[in-house]
Amino acid sequence: MDSNVQNETYGAMPRTIRNFNRKIVLKAARERDTFSVADIASDIMLSRQSVMKALNYFLEKGIMIPMGKGNSTETGGKKPELYALRPPHKYVVILHRTDALVFNLMDMFRNTLDTLSITITKSLTSEEFVEALRTGSEKLLARNPEAKKVLYGVALAMGGLVEQKNHSLHRSMYFSNIQVGLPLYDILRKIYPNVPKIVVENVGRMAGRTVLFDYPKTNQNSRVFSLYIDRAIVGCFFVDGQLQDDSAMMMIEVGHMVLDVHDTEPCTCGSYGCAENLISIKKVRKRISEQIESYQNSCLAEIPVKDITFEKLFNGSKRGDALCAGEVQRLARLMGHLIRNIFLVCDPGTVVFQGNFSNADDLFDSMLRQSIQNDFVYTIRGGTFEIVYDKRDLITLESLGCAQSMIQAFYEDDNLYCSDSELLPVT
Ligand SMILES: [Zn+2]
C-alpha cells in the first residue's frame, strides 16, 4: 500500500502524500523505543524507500536521532541501523494549587526537568495573579536558558470554570478578588509571545486527559467518564479517545447535580443538596462529629474532627470500624446516584475515579456497583460498565495531563510535517 492507494484515498498532490507519509512514520515511531527502517516499513505497510525519505526529514529536523546498529534478525543479514524519536522541544506546565502556582519545565516524554512554585493567597487581585504567572515563568526560564530556544508551548491547569471559546476564567471559587472573565490565554500570550502553542483548561479536565494515556484498556472502550474529585467535582467525557468539548459546561457542573433536595446546607452555587456538598470532607466531618458519642471505640474518636480525611475513613472501614463503614456506605449510595445521572446523559462504559475516592475500600466499591446494577436506568440500557480507581495523587495527574495536552498539540501540528515551516519560536 504505497503511493498508488494513497493517491486514490487522498486524491492529492505529491506534497500531501509526502506529509501524510511523514505523519504515519512518526506515529509508528512513537510506538517504539528504537526502530529500524524495516520495522517501521512493516508496521505501516509502506515501502522502505518512503520510510527512509520521511526518516531523513526527521533526522534533519532533529526530531529523530541515530542510535547505532542493532542486532541482526535475519540469519546472515547485516545489522540494521537503529533510530529513536527524540524531539528536543520543551514546554512549561503551570498548575494552580490552592496556595501556590507550580511551574514545571517538561520534555516530550512527560519528564519534569525543573520545578518551582510561587506562593499565592485567596485574596489575590487580578494584577497580582498575572504578576505571579509572570514571575514564575521568568524565573523558570532564566534557570533554563537552553530550554527557551526550544520552547514549544505552555499549558495552564486552572481551578474554576474556564471558558472553552476564549480561554478566560469564567468563575473561580478559589479567589475572592479576581475579576470575572480574566483573559488567561491573552495574559499567557503576553508572557510567552513566541511559543507556537498555549493551552488553558480547568484543572480537572487536564487531569482527566491522563485516563486515556495511562489506561490503554480504557482506550479500547469507546466511552469513558473520569471524575476528578477534590474540593470540586469535575467530569470529563471521552468518546473514541477524544475529550468531548460540547458538553464542557455540563462536565464542570456535574458536582452541582442535586442528590438530596432536603439537605439544609447551601452549596457554593446557592443551591441545596449538590453532589459536591454531600460528598465533601466537610460534610463527612460534620456527620462524624454528630455520631462520635455513640462510637467511642471508633478509630476516628482518637483524632480531632478537623484531621479526618477520606484516607482515614476508608482505612477505618477496611478494618471493620462501624462508624467509618456507615459513612462509606452513605458515600457509595450518593456516588451511585451521581453515576446514575451521568449514565442518563452520557452512558459511559468506564468510570474512572481520580482524587478523593481513588483510595476507596472494597465496601465502597461493592456498594457502588450494587447500586448501579440495581438501577433502572442502567438495567434498561443493558450495557456493561467498569470502575477504575486511579490512585496517583492529583498534582501528578494534573501535571501529566498538561504534558499530554502539549504532546498531543505537538504531534498534531502540521508544521511538524511541512518542510518550509518552523516548529520553534521566532527569536
Ligand atoms: Zn452546587
Strands, helices and their partners?
Blueprint: H1 3-10, H2 14-30, H3 37-44, H4 48-61, E1 64-69, E2 81-85, E3 90-96, E4 100-107, E5 112-119, H5 126-143, H6 145-148, E6 151-158, E7 161-162, E8 169-171, H7 184-191, E9 197-202, H8 203-208, H9 210-214, H10 216-220, E10 223-229, E11 233-239, E12 242-243, H11 248-253, H12 275-278, H13 281-291, H14 310-318, H15 322-345, E13 350-355, H16 362-373, H17 376-381, E14 386-390, H18 394-412
Parallel strand pairs: 3-6, 6-9, 10-13, 13-14
Antiparallel strand pairs: 1-2, 3-4, 4-5, 7-8, 10-11, 11-12
Helix pairs in contact: 2-3, 2-4, 3-4, 14-15, 15-16
The structure holds zinc ion.
Zinc ion is lined by residues 256, 267, 269, 271, 274, 276.
- Rounded mean pLDDT is 87
What level of helicity do the residues show?
Answer: 40-55%
CATH topology of the largest domain: Nucleotidyltransferase, domain 5
Q: What separation lies between the terminal Cα atoms?
A: 41 Å
Number of helices: 18
Shape call: globular
Strand fraction band? 15-25%
Largest sheet: 5 strands, mixed
Which structural class best describes the helix and strand composition?
A: alpha/beta
Computed CA radius of gyration, to the nearest angstrom: 25 Å
Count of discrete domains:
3
How many strands?
A: 14
The CATH class of the largest domain turns out to be Alpha Beta
Q: What is the fourth-level CATH superfamily of the largest domain?
A: ATPase, nucleotide binding domain
Small-molecule components bound: zinc ion
Strands in their spatial order, largest beta sheet = 5-4-3-6-9
